[in-house]
Amino acid sequence: MDDGIIASRYAKALLKYVLETGNGARVSAQAKRLEQVLGESQELRLALDSPTDVTAAQKRSLLRAALGDEPMAEELERFLGLVLEKGRIPLLRLMLHDFIALHHRSCNVLYARLTTAVAAPDALVERLRAFVRGKTGKEVDIETLTDPSLIGGFIFDVEDYRMDASVLRSLQDIRREFQETNRRIV
Questions:
Q1: At a CB cut-off of 8 Å and minimum separation 6, what does 170 contact?
Q2: Does CATH number 1.10.520.20 belong to domain 3-105?
Q3: 69-125: per-residue pLDDT in tens?
C-alpha cells in the first residue's frame, strides 16, 4: 500500500480521536513540534527507524524528550504507541504533517510559512496575518523561518499561493532577463 495513503489514514484517525476528546489544539501543537524535531534531527530519525538497536520503550522516551519539559498529551502518547506497535514509525513525520493540515482545516485555519533573511519583525507577521484574514475570512497560523540566502525581503506561502518578494528572486530575475537579452551564458 502507498505510504501516503497509510499516513493519511493514521492522521485521520488521530484527528477523529482528538476531536472527540476536545484536545486538538494541544495535540496539534505537540505534533508540530515533533514534526519539526524529526525534520531537524537525522540521528533521531535513525534511532526511531532502527528495528533492533532501540526498543519500543526507548523510542517512546525519545519522542517524549523531543517535546522538552512539556508532558505529552495522552492522545498523542496513545497514537505513538499504536504507530510503534504497527511498525509504522518510518511514516511518523508524514502522519504528523497530514494530521496538522487536517486539524487546521477542521478548525478553519490556514497554514502559512514566512521565510525571511533575518528574524521576521512581529509587525510584518501581523500585517500578513491581517491581509490573509481580510481576503479569506479565516484565521492564519504563520510559521516563521529564517534563510540568509534570501539576502533580503521575504517569501510568504499560504496553502498553494506564494508571494516571493526576496532579493534573491529579484537577482535571479535580472540574471535571466540579461541572459535572454544577450543570448549568452553569463
A1: 153
A2: yes
A3: 899 999 999 999 999 999 999 999 999 999 999 999 999 999 999 999 999 999 999
